[in-house]
Amino acid sequence: MRVYIYLLFSLLIIGCNSDSDEVDPIEDSIPTSFNPTPYNLFTGGFTPPDIPADNKLTIEGVKLGRMLFYEKKLSKDGSMSCASCHQQEFAFTDTARFSLGIHGLPGSRQSMSVFNMAWNTNGFFWDGRAPKLRDQSLMPIQDPLELDENLDSVVAKLEASAIYREQFKKAFGTAEISAERMSLAMEQFMNSIVSVNSKYDKYLNGIVALDSNEERGRFLFFTEFNPGFPSLSGADCRHCHSGLNFENDRYMNNGLDSDANMTDEGRKKFTGRQNDKGKFKVPSLRNIALTAPYMHDGRFQTLEEVIEHYNSGLVNSSTLDPTLLYPLNNGGLMLSAEDKRDLIAFLNTLTDEDLTTNPEFSDPF
Questions:
Q1: From the CB of residue 244, how many other CB atoms can be counted at a distance below 10 Å?
Q2: How far apart are CA 192 and CA 117, in angstroms?
Q3: Nearest-CA neighbor of 223 among 351, 349, 342?
Q4: Measuring CA to CA, which residue among 329, 321, 340, 336 is closest to residue 227?
Q5: Which secondary-structure segment (H or E) carries 139?
Q6: Could you tell me which of 215, 236, 240 has the C-alpha nearest to residue 335?
Q7: Three-class secondary structure of residue 252 per DSSP
Q8: What is the separation of C-alpha 32 from the centre of its chain, rounded to a whole number of angstroms?
Q9: Collapsed DSSP state (helix, strand, coil) of residue 281
Q10: Is the model's pLDDT at 232 over the cut of 50?
Q11: DSSP for residue 153
């Protein structure tokens, strides 16, 4: 009997000690050491980008940025994240003409794609109002039409999470959570999203060949408009959509509206300069087949409409780009139905399926 009581008493003591020493399994399972291991950015045939010297990519920084990109705590009601309007399957854009925020209210411009940001150095958003990608990352959080939250509230919500405290520590060396660190982490993740493995990239590397329609579309894309020799004339797309990323990191007026009908003044709204009226950031044409609708206001639903705009629908205005004024004053690009078909065939070779399925860019939760 005494032995039984002693054993029972011992078990009770052990049980009490176990309860008092219990460790949060989430906290205990996460390493707490700072890990500055660099992130290996795969750039394919691209020249390596100039990553900001004060925010080099690290494995843990990119991981934290990815978590924040998909984190719904960044919105006031916990219903949306950055990824709600920048969806991986659509090359990190939205299929809606104007994305709806947490209150069901639409924005005024179509969501831009988020890939190959590391090669953009001339501002962000359609009007370039964010000088750096880290600046851009915080603006939708505070926009009343988007996530409608304030940064102090977001920080408080993240501070309440053991997982985030530890991840900030691994990324930055301490568990301090701040809006600045959030922006740096999200900049790292967005700079890690690359699209460098389309059929066109494989063609350039000699791995695949383009079919006859794609090859003719390639010729039209890169060949200048020449009204004097229609048989040799091209669509002259490369003046604006140049280089491996098929963009020029500039702001241009592409002939959508006259001065009188221009309801969105574009970059002028940010700079105040009259010569910026109607100018918008030139987007990359990579993955263009996935990113409808098109233009800053999503007015075109199909690539056929886009090509027809440049073929015969250009509208003159005070800031129309001179390269577009030339075909406008010479009867348009004179593209045939076959030309348009082949151009679209070539544009389809710019689709990168790796981008849309790469688990490194997907929702981590």
A1: 18
A2: 8
A3: 342
A4: 329
A5: helix 133-142
A6: 236
A7: strand
A8: 31
A9: strand
A10: yes
A11: H
Helices then strands (H, E): number in the chain?
A: 14, 2
CB 250 within 8 A of CB 122: yes
Structure token digits, residue 307: 């090509």
Predicted local distance difference test score (pLDDT) of residue 33: 84
Place of tokens 């959570």: 177
How do residues 282-318 score in pLDDT, each as one tens digit? Answer: 999 999 999 999 999 999 999 999 999 999 999 999 9
Cβ within 8 Å of residue 81, ≥6 positions away = 69, 70, 71, 72, 74, 75
Which two structure tokens, joined as six digits, stand for 165?
A: 């405290």
Give the integer Cα–Cα distance in Å for 290 and 25. 42
Q: Give the residues across from 106 on adjacent strands.
A: 100
Residues paired with 320 in a beta bridge: 253
Query: Counting every residue, how long is the chain?
Result: 365
Classify residue 139 as exposed, middle or buried by CB count within 10 Å of its CB (0-12, 13-18, 19+): middle
Question: Which residue is associated with the tokens 């860019």?
Answer: 361
Domains of the chain: 25-194 (1.10.760.10), 199-349 (1.10.760.10)
Report the sign of the C-alpha dihedral through residues 362, 161, 80, 117, in that order: negative
C-alpha–C-alpha distance, residues 25 and 142, integer Å: 34
